């Protein structure tokens, strides 16, 4: 990924494949939010999506194997939005087709409590709070590109 | 992430959550949440001070709620902030655990 040097905040972050390393992400996003005046609601959506995407890589991509690499790049795209590119060297991940990976119905009133699978909300939340998502297979890993609208249309998240 | 609880009239247990209910926060409260769920039948989860809720945090709410409901109890969520409520609704969890913004209605729902 190309280096970006024009900003005060570092636009790249390298992590190890450990959940404890996610603690490094939030101060990094804090710095980006301050430099690029990211509104609070957009910041919330960014935190939510990064936590979900990164924890999925650690738990499912690398299957708990520690000390593997995860790279995050931030690209401020002006009116096009705020883009985060996450790359790993994990086995190829089949990008979920729309709705196929949702583990519960979107019709909340029809839900039976037993159908609400704890921890099974990740893809649904990514789709709900990210502006756009794109999964790609790299020769030796995966790339997920998440773009958030900036400035947000209203609440910082996309409509249903 | 902080968690505290108090017993209210009518056998209601009020649990106050405070902070970020992310992966780290969820790990910090899971044990106490499960202990409370194992001994309470009427649970009011005060979400006013929860500033962030992610998918692992949802788990910290759903698992104890299912425990309480399996024992014939009730759970309500009280006063989540806007974005936390968005997450609760996007995940459909508000169908399992009703959300109330008035304490009186939250308590009434547990009767």
How would you describe what is shown here?
The complex is a heterodimer of chains A (160) and B (111). Chain A is built from 3 helices and 5 strands, in the order E-H-H-E-E-H-E-E. In chain A, a hairpin with a 2-residue loop joins strand 4 and strand 5 (141-148). Chain A has helices at residues 25-35, 40-61, 122-129; strands spanning 12-16, 69-76, 82-88, 132-138, 141-148. The N and C termini of chain A lie far apart (32 Å). Chain A has a 5-stranded antiparallel beta sheet with strand order 1-2-3-5-4, with helices on one face. Chain A is globular and about 35 Å long. By secondary structure, chain A is an alpha+beta fold. Chain B has 4 helices and 5 strands; from the N terminus they run E-E-H-E-H-E-H-E-H. In chain B, helix 1 (23-39) runs parallel beside helix 2. Chain B starts with a strand and ends with a helix. Classes of the chains: A alpha+beta (160), B alpha/beta (111).
Short description:
Chain A is of the alpha+beta class and 160 residues long. Chain A has three helices and five strands.
Ranges of chain B with pLDDT <50 over ≥5 residues? none
Identify the biggest protein-protein contact and residues per side. Answer: A-B, 32 and 26 residues
Question: Cα distance, first to last residue of chain B?
Answer: 29 Å
Form type of chain B: globular
Cα radius of gyration of chain A in angstroms = 16 Å
Return the string of H and E elements of chain B: EEHEHEHEH
Strand sequence of the main sheet of chain A, in spatial order?
Answer: 1-2-3-5-4
What topology, given as strand order, has the largest sheet of chain B? 1-2-3-4-5
Largest sheet of chain B: 5 strands, mixed
Poorly predicted runs of 5 or more residues of chain A: 99-116, 153-160
How does the helix and strand content of chain A classify structurally?
alpha+beta
Strand content of chain A: 15-25%
Throw out a few tags for this protein.
A: 160 residues; 5-stranded antiparallel beta sheet; 3 helices; globular; disordered C terminus; B: 111 residues; alpha/beta; 5-stranded mixed beta sheet; 4 helices; 32% strand
